[in-house]
Amino acid sequence: MFKYFQTGVESNVSITNTNWGVRIGHTSFYNSTTTTWTYEPGYSCNSVSAWVTSNSTHDLRVGGETYTGTNKYSSSNDVVTWKYTGTTLANNTQLWSGTGSTDMVVYEPFARNPSWGDNFNDNSMSPVYWCELQYNGGTVDETSNKLKLTIPSGTGQACAGYVTHYSDTIDDRCIEINVPEFDNLDEMIIMIATSQTTGTDPYGLSNWYRCLKTKFTAGDYDWYVQKKVSGTSTTMEQWDASGATGKLKIAVDDGYIRFYEGDNLRYAEPYALSTTSVYIYVYTSTLRSRNSGYDYMDDFTCNSYDSRYVKDDFIDTSYQNRWDWISGSATVESGKFKMYDNGEQKTETAYNDYRCVAGKVTTVQNGSEHWNVAWLVAKYVNWDNQIYGLIWPDGTVELGVRYQGDQHGWATSSGSVGNPIGTEHAWQIVLTGNHAVLSVDGVVKITATDSYIASIHSEKLAVFGNNSDCIAKFDDIEVID
Asked: What distance in Å separates the CA atoms of residue 9 and residue 21, rounded to the nearest whole number?
């Protein structure tokens, strides 16, 4: 019987930077009683706690090194991912929690930094990355330096594609797949899910996000964003696709998930799955009685991702180079952008129409009217042309658009946000065409569709302390477009 079982990886070159990650999975021992390869929960064992025994010259340890700055980045049933984070993993930390048995197949060592990809040029599936997904007659092959997805004619829904061999964190990552040919099948999909299937339709899983292009009738291409959480599916967005081909792209960062058609932001919301450790799917799902044949995917990438196109944390006076005065007074106080005496500021830079604007907002002191509070203005031309959000003193959340002096607005019920005065809240406003989504503290409060939203084009953003009695503070203002 064993007491300690050591596992790890070694590199044949010196690792001199912090951009790396290593994943260890299926660490097992052979159990002669059950004749199976068995795994038990794993724990870290640092420094002197790893001592086993001694001989005349030195202590004998299992592992025993404390690798400064290295930590557990993610884990699942019998897999752990290590990454340099700047925080050192504590002794006796659980690395994985599962117990059971696995097969005795030894795969090539899995070690990669957060950026990886597959251009399918070797015309052979890499089992360290992928498993084949094939259902109801669908088949997948790497051929002609692309991923070929084939669905035969017949009856029922069929699927073909790849799913990652292991789960991995999607946090601070961007995944994308190119669709170079889409002429014959129903759907081309990129998806993340908390569980894996290789022989059923992934739509039947309980927790996932996906974006997809569809062609149910010849020449009619649509683009969708969908999710399923705890078994309940929702279509968040549907558009006329820009064409048959192009990239499908999902990014997760800072608690939000974002979806792109090509490089154009189409939708974003607070990340709703219970874990960021997910499997990645690239595949087709096609009703065999409606469409059949084959199409292609190509050039899958997974890259480290920082969503911030621009971010201002107001740690010094350099903000003065990025913001212009509109009215009133403004200053930086303890790392916050403070508006007072009817203070209003706008950015010097204009951004794309499709954008996500986020920031931390505090109404320190409100005025006599419910709108005399902090405003985050996601698009600003002038007072008569703007898109804004605010929280009333009673906790009501408001989203509004003024176009050529005319105003349309949407509001939640009283008490939608607790502690509206004196407490910092994290806001996000996503603008895609005629659609807007306002979230507070990671919760979607208002969704709106209105032609006025699309009528205000690529412009600046602004922050207000509305009214001379109002004091407002802003921090970590960022724009993603």
From this structure: 11
pLDDT greater than 50 at residue 408: yes
CA 404 to chain centre: 36
Q: Quick check: 426 and 417 in contact, CB under 8 A? A: no
| CATH superfamily entry for domain 310-480 | Exo-inulinase; domain 1 (2.60.120.560)
Cα separation of 146 and 417, whole Å? 49
Which of the given ranges, 100-114, 166-180, 250-264, has the highest pLDDT on average? Answer: 166-180
Higher pLDDT, 44 or 188: 188
Q: Do domains 116-304 and 310-480 have the same CATH topology?
A: yes
Burial label, 249 (beta-carbon count in 10 A; 0-12, 13-18, 19+) = buried
Q: How far is CA 444 from CA 237, 347, 392, 405, 430, in A?
A: 15, 26, 17, 27, 11
Candidates 208, 203, 179; CA nearest to 192 is 208
pLDDT digits (tens, 9 = 90+) for 182-233: 999 999 999 999 999 999 999 999 999 999 999 998 889 999 999 999 999 9
Domain topology for 116-304: Jelly Rolls (2.60.120)
Contact of 458 with 351, CB cutoff 8 Å:
yes
| Residues 248, 410 contacting (CB under 8 angstroms) | no
Copy the structure tokens of residue 8.
């790890």
For residues 241 and 215, is the Cβ–Cβ distance under 8 A? no
Non-local (6+) Cβ contacts of 200 within 8 A are 135, 159
Query: Domain segments of the chain: what residues?
Result: 21-102, 116-304, 310-480
pLDDT in tens, 87-97: 888 888 888 88
Average pLDDT over residues 82-103: 79
**Inter-residue contact 392 to 472 (CB < 8 Å):** no
Cα–chain center distance at 402: 31
Taking alpha carbons only, the member of 346, 348, 339 closest to residue 325 is 346
Residue partners of 58: CB distance under 8 A and separation at least 6 = none
pTM over 0.70: no
**By three-state DSSP, how is residue 13 classified?**
coil
Angular region, 319: left φ>0, alpha ψ -120 to 50, beta rest: alpha
> In this structure, how many other beta carbons lie within 10 angstroms of the beta carbon of residue 351?
21
Residue pair 393/370 in contact (Cβ under 8 Å)? The answer is yes
Q: 66: Cβ–Cβ under 8 A, 6 or more apart, which residues?
A: 46, 47, 88
Work out the number of other CB atoms within 10 angstroms of the CB of residue 328: 18
Is the pLDDT reported for residue 17 higher than 80? no
> Whole-angstrom Cα distance, residue 61 to residue 315?
47
Residue indicated by tokens 């799917």:
281
- Can you read off the two tokens belonging to residue 105? 């197949």
